[in-house]
Amino acid sequence: MSQRITRRQFAAGAAALGAGLMTRTSVFGALGANERVRLGIIGVGNRGDQLIDAFVPHKDAEIVAVCDVFEPYIAAAKAKLGGKPTGCRDYRELLDRKDIDAIVIATPDHWHAIHCIDACNAGKDVYVEKPLSLTIGEGRRMVEVANETKRVVQVGIHRRSDDLMRQAAEAVRAGEIGHVTLATCYYWNNLFPVGIGKPADCDPPEGLDWDTWLGPSPKVPFNPNRCLYKFRWFRAYSGGQLTNFGTHYIDVIQWALGKDAPTAVVAAGGIYALDDVRDIPDTLHVAWEYEGGTLVTFTQTDCSGAPYNKHGAAMEFRGTKGTLYLSDGGFVIEPEQNRLAPFPALDPRDRAKVAEQVRKREAAMTERKARGRGTTADHARDFLDCVKSRGTCHADIETGHRSTSTTLLGNMAYDRKARLEWDAKAERVTNDAGANDLLLYAYRAPWKLP
Fold it and tell me: Which pTM does this prediction carry?
């Protein structure tokens, strides 16, 4: 990704290219059902490599180009694909190509907005990994450009394409477990005592364009723990596990609740036990309030590997009639069993009547289990289908933005050490003006939010 093209020159070229492509891949001329969707992938390291695996099984997908600022990743991706795709270090070379229909983005979070917006403006459909953005303001701009350019955009919240998750969400919305007053999700991982370590700054490895990897983020010396996968432990490039895994879980919870945004959020945590170079908490707890009387929480620890509940499930929905435990492999609905107390607050004459009503209700509810297989390949299939039909993806960009925004609000509350009240329509914090400064950040020159 050299800076051989100015942003103004690139924007002009992309606009012209987008106009030329409209006849092939827009609502005015969708791909035929049997045509191949030709893909270019930006970022082919850890997650990008997994996305290659997700798209390859589909016979109507063809990966024609790969791009990365780390040359060994390019070489590995090309070898995996039999040497067929071309490789490059400047993502704009992919956008200039007329033989690419869609762009797959698996770069670190701080690059998502620029890559996605530039791809949309170049007339490409987009599969962009979660979390959608590093800030809420970036996410809203991504939504605006996707809508303006009429691009199909799938956010990599792949559980939206999982039939198991759909069944669980429908069960909650149908009232199978009653009114959900508390929904909880967890991330646990024991990195104690060394965490990710404390390596010294050094020269970048051969083949890495460190300045371009940093992109719009501040200029800092290379450190092995900042780059490649460990970027997740630095807020300049990621929201941590709250936005990494939390976006997946919060998306499912909001789906099940029929909500797309909270009304308020609080957060607490810190670096309590690990001695490494991170700048995100090793322990974090976030709580969001939702209209209608539901509290949603996320708990993260990098200091314990013990599951948080008896089923080892990453998500729980606690309702007035029962509890649903949900993990990637399946879910269990357990009827409420703690309702036959003596009801001390009731008049003695009413206790027997209420107890009988509770017995009848609980007798009508039985334990239910379901299994699932949800994979990213299913999500890739949905994207390919929508590129051809011009339909709305399971995790379209507005959905991805709303789910990502909820987790980003958690980080904002943590940063402000305050309870933040959220106006989801205006996308503004209403009780802390300073918090709204966190909705965007100043990009390092020459990069700008398109």
Answer: 0.88
